[in-house]
Structures are given as structure tokens and as C-alpha cells.
Queue: 3 jobs
Job 1
Amino acid sequence: MQASVFASLVLMADRSDEDFGVPAEEIPGLLIESAIEGRYTPESAAFCRLLMFLGSPALKAAASKALEEHTDDGIYPPDWVTDAGRPLPHRAWRSYSVFGDEEFFVITFNYGDAEHAILVGLDLTMLPCIGVLRASPDPDKLIKVVRGRDEPFERFEEITLTEARRRIEGLLARADEDLDPDVSNSSFMCLPIVRSRIRRLPAGPPHATVTYTAAHRAAAVGDFLRSPLAASAGDADAARFWAEVLTGYSGRVPGEAPAHVGPGRLEAALRWHVVRTFTLTDAQRESLQPAVTAWSRWAAGRQGLDDAATARMLELLQKVFDDFGSAYDSPGSIAHRGYVRDLAVTSDVDVAWLAECRARREFAVPRPVDREPGREVLDAADQDHRVVISISEFGMCDTGLMPRKEWVQAVNRVVEELWHDDPPTTWQTAQRLRAKGMARHDIIHSLAT
């Protein structure tokens, strides 16, 4: 666990845009030097060996170099390190919401007679991501925590180790970037050890993922509009608008059928997706409650939710309706809509594509909370405003031999290329540099030179 905490520090540095004053590739080696403090012992050799097992590629390389320095001095890790990180997987359990908003897994492992467990929680309301991670020498405690969720709308079951790996592995692989921003540091510090444990689980045959297309989403919308519930949705055009928006959001995840519904997903769709994406007409705002209620009832029936679960979902949905107006009109939501205002022109816009475009444009132009002071109110959709935002960030950078005027023009060129994805090679290059650990500011700086 101590090695996992250490390895997580390197992961945190990798995903941070902060300038640490040294090249990113040197951070793992500097952290190891700081931890060992020049005192080579069998325990510090064991520490390096565990980092090679748990760490990122960069940390593994730095730890391997440090271990080689130990062995050159005749200092070797103790024998117990041979078995470290190689426990035998034992059993797995899954707790899940009938609405499909979240899942929790507990998996146990054995070192001889000693047992320990990991807990993995998945948040499925927006883009699926890791919500919580835990590791404990007390498996019964973790099982009790997860089983205690077995309320009217929760289910608890034992599953195979292969099934547990299939459901978790993909999200863990990209958890560095997609980890829920509200997740605690203690969860992030468990990420390296949880990853190592999941790799110990048996892998099954490749899992076939069903592909749902725009045609599937359109068919689902058509089914709703032909259903008796559509009559209570209000104005026909507004009913179609909300049906296409909600169906599109519910079908945003590969392998997930359109019209999947749950209280968490509805809240995320309305208070996160809609308010940050669509510029609503008065008619669309007025039809929000009747149209969304009708679609939610229809989707619940299609999903097989019983009357109690449907009633609970609609009860929680009422609070979303109550808060929608203030969320939509907030300055933050207005600013977010500016990033996709020219793209979200139809209610059936592909949500996954839109998310990719938003990520690219937020890379080009920081969100208001990440801008220089005094630039928060500027509209990213306005090219003149983008110029002001860019100059405030890059105007005083060291340009080397490039004249200041040419430098500003070069930065603005890169920002516009990223904003419009023209040419696509600019964003492709930025993504490659980011994958190598380069910070956003440095990437744009590099592209401009």
C-alpha cells in the first residue's frame, strides 16, 4: 500500500498541468531519490522492486535504474519480495442499481491463509468512470459495506472473477484521466494496487460489444412519439426535441441501448449535458417537465422497471425540474454552451462526437475557471475573445528568437486550428504530446514555435 501511494503521486503529476520546474520525465527519478535519501538497504531495494510492479512505465524505468544501483553495491531485496504482488484471486461480488446508475465490486485475494480485498465503484451516470477505490486486509468489512446497499432498488450477487475483470478493466486502464473529479485522494492512491490486482484475474474470451447507431436512436424516438405517453408530452415539436436529447444522451456509451433511464442519468442529462450544450427556446423550456416526465415513464417501461422503481425515479426527477432554471441560467452554464454553440444545432446531435469536440476546444481555450484573472467572462465562441484569452496566457512567454508579434500570431494560429480542427494534424500532435506527459500550456507553446 505504501508503494501504491507513492506510485499514485507520479500519476497525479502526469495528469497535472502544473509546472514543477523540471521535465516531466525526471519526476519519477527525483521522487525515488527523495524517498530513499541515499540510504541503500534491503528494504529500499524491496521498495524499488514493488514500484517496478505497481508503477507507470516511467516510474518502472526509474525504479529499475535505482534497483540496479542497489545491486551494484551488493544490496538485494529480501526473499519475501518474490511473491509480493502475486496473490491468488479468490471470489468476487457485485452490487448494482436497478436503474443502472452505479455498480460496486468486491474481489478477494489470498497470500497463503491471509486474505485481503479490493473495492471498485463505478459511476455510470455520465461517461462511465471509476468513482471509488479501496484496498483492505478485512474483506468482510468491504463486503458488508457493499451488501449494506442492498435496499429496494439495489441488487447484490456473486459473480465470476472473469466477469469482474471484464466489467472493470477498461475503466481502470484510463482512470488516470477519467477518474471522477470528486473522488477522494485515498481512492486515487489505491489506483496502482487495484490495477495490479485486476491483472491477476482470469481473462475470458473477447466480449462482443453491440454497436448502436443514429438509426437505433431515431427508431427509439419514433417508438416514444407513437406511444400513448407522447400525448402527455405537450407540444409535438418540443416533445420530439426532448425525446431526441434524452435518447441521444442515454445512448452515448458504446454497447448501451438508447433510452436507458435512471435518476442519476436523468439528472446528469439535464443538469450537466443540456444546460452546457443546448440554447433552448421558450417553448422548449416550458415543455421540459411534461415532455421529460412522459419520456421517462416510457423509457422505464421499455427498460422493465417496476412501478415502485419508476415512482422513485420520478420523485427524484422533480428536484431536477425545480433546479433546472437556475442551473441553465448560471454564468458557468452560459460559458460552457459557448464551446459547442455552433455544433449543437440539432437535438439528435451525436453526444460522443460532441464530447470529443468540447474536449478539443477546451484544450485550445481554457474553461473560465482555468483562465487568467479578469478573463472569466469572455466568450470562447467569439474569435476576438479567444485572442484576448490566448494573449493573457501566452503573451509574456519566452519566445526565444521569435519577435513578440510573430509569437502572438503563431499562438493564435494554433488555437484556431485546434478550435476548428483544421488541419486535424494539429490536434493529433497535441494528443500525442499529452500522452507523453507534456502539460497543455507547453504543448501549445511547442506547436507555436
Job 2
Amino acid sequence: MTDVNWEFKGREFIHCNCDYGCPCQFNGRPTHGSCRAIGGIVITEGFHGKTRLDGLRMACVLSWPGAIHEGRGHATPIVDERASPEQREALLRIMSGEDTEPGATFFQVFSTTYEKVNEPVIAMIDFEVDVDARTARLTVPGVIDAQGTPIRNPVTGEAHRARIDLPNGFEYSIAEVGSGKAKATGAIAFELENSHAHFA
């Protein structure tokens, strides 16, 4: 850890293999015993020390054989190809939990659970997310192809709205819950469909 200050504001889309709501958000065990997830973030404004991060994107592919807190996780960090060398270094430090107080962000918390971190992918991150509409599209060529949609009422087909409120959350305060579909390829590979997604 260093004395570098950083902060950013942005929007995220996270999609995992759990049932809607994701028991992990409530200190429960993952629905199927293991965790597989993809995530994307677009920074609307932010900085790391003197380096501005406005408009940049980052993503990740994650996998744990059990519950996240039990460790042995694998991670692939993905950084926006538009980032300068200084911005790239800043984003990777943030994503790896460096320059962060213990427990302050999900980047730092998750970093303590990794057994292996794959080489960072520097690529085009095509990412659009509308938190209120509960929609997202995340594409990283050769790595992630994912989308998020609202949960649909099984009888009427209408969009169903549910939120998770975590006053002391280390990832978000309030997240809109939806459904996701994703295919991850590369160092960590899996396919997900009709499982938990959240937008924050």
C-alpha cells in the first residue's frame, strides 16, 4: 500500500452464476457451490494520484471453486486499450487492491481471495450500461460477450424490479437486480444464462 489517493465515480454491470439476488450479497453460500462472474465498469470521472481516469473502462473475468471468502480464486483483469501507460498502471493498481485501505473496496477484498491472477488483457472494451433500465452490453473481443436485461415476470412478461440495499456495502449502496447472459473465453472460460446480474 502507498500514499497515493484515488477515487472514481462510474457505473457497473456484474453478472454471476447464482440465482437472482445472489446469496453472496447476504453472506450466504453461492447457489451452485462455486462462483463464476464477469464485470464491467465505466468511469465517468476519477483520478489516481495526478492521473485522470475520466471515460475509461475496465472489466474482469473471475472464478472461485467455492464461496469467494474461501479463496483459491482466479482472475483476469481487463483494461481499456485507450488508456495511456500511466492510466493503465493506475487501473491495474486499483483492480489489484493496491493503494486501498483493507476492506474499503471490492477490488481490495477480492484481491485477498485470489490464488492466481492471469496476465492483464489490454483490449477494446465495448460497454454500455443503463442502471435504471437494468440493461447492459459488455463485449471484449475474444474474452467476454455478455448482456444484462430486466428480470421478466413469468406470467405477464412484464419487467420486474428489485433492488439490493447495502448501507455498509464495499461495492455499492444500492444495486438494481436483473438477469444476465454471458460467454467468457480465454484463461477463464464458462457460459452463463438467466442468472443473477446487478447494475450499480
Job 3
Amino acid sequence: MPSSVKTLTPAPWGISAKMAKALADHWRVRILAELSVRPMSPSRFAEEVGGELTHISRCFRQLADWGYIEIVEERLGRRQGAAIEHVYRGIQRAHFDTESWEAVPRKERNAVSHAAVSSYFARVSEAVDAGTFDAEIDRHLSWDSLALDKEAWGHLGRRLDGVLDWLPELAVEASRRLATGEESPIPTVVGLSAFRSPQSPVTMLQVSRFHDQAPAPSDEQFEFAFGPAMAKALSNNWRCRILLELTHRPLSPSQFVEEIGGSMTHVSRCFRELAELGLVEVFEERPGGRRGGGVERIYRCLRRPYFDATTWETLPKLVREEMSQSFLGSYLDRVVEAMATDTFDADADRHFSWKPVLLDRVAWREVGVRLDEILTDLPNLERQSVARASELDSLIPTIVGLASFRSPTG
């Protein structure tokens, strides 16, 4: 690596274009992500995450040379005959702004994105396994698919960048309040994403979309929220997963079984139950694809599966955990699909970030309010995009993911 790179001083929450190229390595990015959560040695990283120890150790040293990590402890190596083991911690975050990100070759961007996605879902898995993901009733978890024009896409990206830039300031304010000892800290992971889906924007708009619906003036805040009775009706893993998939594209029961799984008899019954509840409707009927099959009914979603805090609090914890798994599974499918079809990094100004922060109760609620505001604004962005578009094919099929949850790591 050129020695001149070491003399570049990174900005507190960004990096130069030259430093971006130096950092655009799958393992260096993954190391930075893991060290933002907990101190680790190169050998511990290789055991828990992967990689060849010699290369991982070199990546640790390079990151230390560049001022992104530092040695926090030295101890005897755990293996027989091993020398001193250096334990590192993160002291600088590598956040790629759009200008720096564009300077990184596309192949390296794909590798960095893979590392960022892997580390984020490792945090999610840790929280789910430890039972902290749904420990806070007012945790936030949502994803949605919508078609945006360039103006709305840019607006959304700036809002997500704004949240990312605001989190350190929020954490400092929380630390001052926590210093009084009156509240317990909440170790929090905040995840933000907006990326291009391989789905056609026209198909996306065929699903029950919001561009042709005016918001209800009397109930605008909870326009897409379900009541407690509806939430209980959805407290079935298959019904919940069906509804989530239908927010992305029209589907028949047989298509769902082929792509997602489940028993055809049970899945068909769930589709019918959702239709009876007024959450989905038959969008199209066509001859069944199988020999001797009857009419195949294609359904689309009528209501977005978003739960306000009051409704969420009425559900038993076991039900909340099952629904969270459905939300996470369907969102992960969207991410994997976009990466597999090479649309995830198709736009240099796409957004994918996650950050661990230590908050108090006041700051935790502020994060929830900010994410709720973004979620509530998505239908307006799509309505405005459709109104401005001369051709619907020109819109950007977009997946937006928002989350804030308690981490098991202090």
C-alpha cells in the first residue's frame, strides 16, 4: 500500500477518495464493522468471522497505521507457543459519502457492500438469538418497496444521510444524561438502507401502491397502521410473510409456495383469510399452470403491514418475535435478490449503513420518531414521483429498510 496513504487524515465521519480506495477491501471493512461493536484480536476475528490469519493480521496493522483502530490491550496468546496477542478497538468510522464511493471501482464496491450487509445481519442474528431484538416494545423494524424518480430518490438519500450524521451527536447528548446515573443505557443498533430492486417499477406499482391514494386527513399519522384485532389476525407466520411478499409484487398461492415454501392447502387458506380481512384482493385470474389446474388467482396487497407502537404493545412477546422474523426474512430476501442480480450497487448514491450507539431512553425515542417520520413520508414520495414521471418505466424501483433495536453487546 502506498505510504502516502498513511499521511491522509480522515474526517471524523467521512473519508477521502484516496482513502476510500485503500479501505475498499472486504476484510478491512468487515474488521472495522466488527470493531465498532466490540474489541477483538486478529486471531479472534479469524475464528469468529473468517479469513486467513496472516492476511487478517496485516489488515489490522494497516487500519491501525491509518488511524481507524488502536490497540487497547496486550495479553498472552491463547494458543500454545503463541506470542503476545494484540486486542484492538475501533476509534474511527469509515463512512463512504457518495463522492468517495464513486471513486471506488464497481467490483470493490460490491465486495464492500457484501461485508457491510454481512456484518449488519450478524448484529441482527446476535440480537435475535440473545432475545434483545424485541426486548423493547417500541423498537423499530420496517421495510417497504416503492417507485421513485431521481428527485425523490435524492431526497430520501439525504434524509438517511442526515440520520446517520445525527447519531453521533445524539449519542453525546445521551452520554451527558447517562452520566447522572438516573437511567440505564440502551446499547442500540440503527440500520438504514435504500437500494435499487431488480423488480420492474411498473410491476411494483401494480401492487397496491399509494400513488393513487390521497392520505386520510383525519388519520394521517396512522394511515397504514392496523388495529389490535387485525394485528392478532396477522399473528401467524405464514399470513404475515404472505402480506410482506405481496407488498413487493403480486403473487398467487402457488407462486408463493414455489418461491417461499409452505403447504399449498395452508397457504391458499391464508391468502383467502387475508382477503376476507380486507388486507389483500384478487388482482388477476388466469388458467392454472398445472395440468388439470383450475383458475389461478393473483393477489395484491391493500394495506401495508406497519404497526404503530400502541398496536404493537398489545401483542404477546412470542407473537412479536414471530412477526419480527417474518419481517427480517422478507427484507433479507430483498437484499439477497438485489445483490444476486447486481442492482444493489447499481446506483453510486444508494444507501446502506448501520451504526451501534449507546443511548438513553430519551434518545432512543427520538430515533424511533425520526424513523417513523421517514416511513410515513414514503407514500408521499411515491405519489410525487408518479405525478412528475413522463413514463413509469423511468422510475427507480426502491427498497427502503429502517431498524433500531437493542443490541446484546454493551
